[in-house]
What does this fold into?
Amino acid sequence: MCAANRTGLATPAEAPLLEVKNLKKHFPIRKGLLRRVAGHVYAVDGVSFTLRRGETLGVVGESGCGKSTTGRVVMKLIDPTAGTIRLAGEDITQVPPDRLRQIRRQMQIIFQDPYSSLDPRQSAGSIVAEPMIVHGTARGQELEDRVADLFKRVGLRTDDMRKLPVAFSGGQRQRVGIARALALNPSLIVCDEPVSALDVSIQAQVVNLLMDLQDELGLSYLFIAHDLAVVHHISHRIAVMYLGRMVEFAETEDLFAEPLHPYTRALLSAIPIPDPTARRAERIVLAGDLPSPSKPPKGCHFHTRCPFAFDRCRVEDPPLREIRRGHFAACHLLDGQNVDASNAAVTVAGSALSEGEP
It folds into this structure.
C-alpha cells in the first residue's frame, strides 16, 4: 500500500504543521591547547521544507548528508546555527526552556538503535510511562491503564510491561520505543532511521505499524532513512539531501517516476529489484568520494561527482526551484525550464557512467 493513496492527509491549502526555513547547523572544530575554533562542520547548510498534518515526509541521502542532524535540530535536541522552525504556527527556534518543555509534548522521536535507546535497568512499562510521569499527564491507575493501552496499540501484550528490554527482540524493542513516542499524544514524530537496525522481515512489520498508527491518530512523520524502498512505501513526499543541502523535493510518485536531479537518479538506480528478469535502467555509479562536510566544494556541492558539471556549477550554488508543480530541484541543468533536455542529458550521462566512461 503506497502512502500517497492513504486518507487523512491535510490538503496543501491548509497551514502546515511544521515549517523549516533556511535551517543551518554548523559544528565548530576546535584545535590546540586553547581549543580555538579552526573551522566548522557544515552538517546542515540551508534546508527548507514544510510538513502537513497527517503527512509523512521522507528524508533520504548518503551517510553524512545531514539527515539525522536535521531531525535532531527540528526536535530542538540541538540548537540551530541559523534558520527558523515553526510548529503549528509557533516559532520554536529560540523559545525559553519552560515553553520548550510544553512544546515537547507535541513532538517526539523514535531513535535508530532499539538496543541502546532503552534503559536496560527499567521495565518496558516504566519506560513507556516515564514521559507521562515527567509531564504529569497521568498517574496511578490511569497511568497503568494508559501504558497497557499503548502496549496493545503497538502489538505487544500487557504481560510484557514487566519485562526488561533484554527480554525483547529488536523488533519488539522498537515497538516499545514507538509506544514511548505515543505516550504524550504528539502531533509530530521524527523517525530517525527506525528500521535500519532490524531484519528485513521485521522492518515491514514496523513500517506497517507506523502507517496504521498514522491513519488512526492523524500523526505527521519526518521519516529519515537511507533505504529508498522503505521511504517509497511510507512517504507522501520525499526530500533528497546531499552534503547538508536539499537537492530535490517532490511528491513520492513524481520523484520516483521522473527524478530531475542527477544525484537522485543515481540513488534510484541503486535500488534492488526483486524480479531478476525485470528490465531496469542502467546502474549509475558516481565517481569519487563524498567530500568532507568540513570542506564542502564551492558552488554546487555535487559538482565534484556530477558526470556533466560545467563551469557555472563550480562557482555558483544552484537554488532549490520549483521546476514542475510541487517538484523542486537544485541544478543548473534545469535553468530555463528545459526539463526534457535536462532529463535527456542526465540519461546520457548515466548511460556513460554505467559503461565505465569518465
